[in-house]
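Quick one, T. Sequence first:
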Amino acid sequence: MWNPSRREWIGGAGLALLAGRLPALPLSQFKLGVTTDEIDDDVLTAVKFLREYGLNWAEVRNIWGKYNTEHPLEKIREARAIFDRNGIKVSIDDTAFFRIPLPPESAEGQRTLDAQWALLNASMERAKAFGTRKLRIFAFMAEGAAAPSEKSYARIYELLSEAARRAKPGGFRLAVENLGAGCVATGAQSAEMLKRVKADNFGLLWDPNNAGEAGEQSFPDGYRKLDPARIFHVHLRDYKHQDGKVVWTAVGDGEFDNLGQIRALLKSGYKDTFTLETHWLDPKGKTYSSATSLKALLKVIERV
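Structure tokens:
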């Protein structure tokens, strides 16, 4: 009788059969999810996918054709009920808060900021309804090729500190995602932001692939600059350089060292959540694309 080793079982056909049994893996505490709209905008379809692969976590961005913050609370509660029935926890609620150019210091700029503070309030309501106190936010978008001035960065840090202050009473944690086109794109820029915004409920959503897109050797170089204790959430996927630009790939087909990054995080004592944010899109569709990358990522995790 064939008695496969654990590695053989995970690496081959056993992967599909192990759906629902991944908690038995050595890394049973590895809190891995997938961004649901990278599977399907329909919540139940996405949840069935997560359960098929034995995952218990989800990052929520778009559901049922809209950004989650654009839905009324009734729809958020409907989605939460589907998650609960299937044993899925929401790791982080994605918002577009501060995913705008830095507003000018004018009456018009103040109106823009007022709309952003309203968005933060709506986002906290929805995160609470989802059962999470962790929100993905941004640190404003860069305009043109020139880097923001020191004065602009000082104002960005001031506004981020104010956001953390507003989120604190509700027990919310704000995680800024470093973004390729953002004012905070790299590990180095993220580290400077974390030095300047000291609130204990303010941290980083570390996306090393976004930092790679911005031109940084994100692991190990960019990651070395970060305080792991300030990392609240991590995005995983893969990329490669092609024709002078960065393109997303299936996990394992690119150049990012997911294994090294995960090992370094766990060695630092990181115990928070991870998300496969697929981005790469195969002609067969996003569900196929996420399944392909997830299978490869699970193999990486088995090697950790």
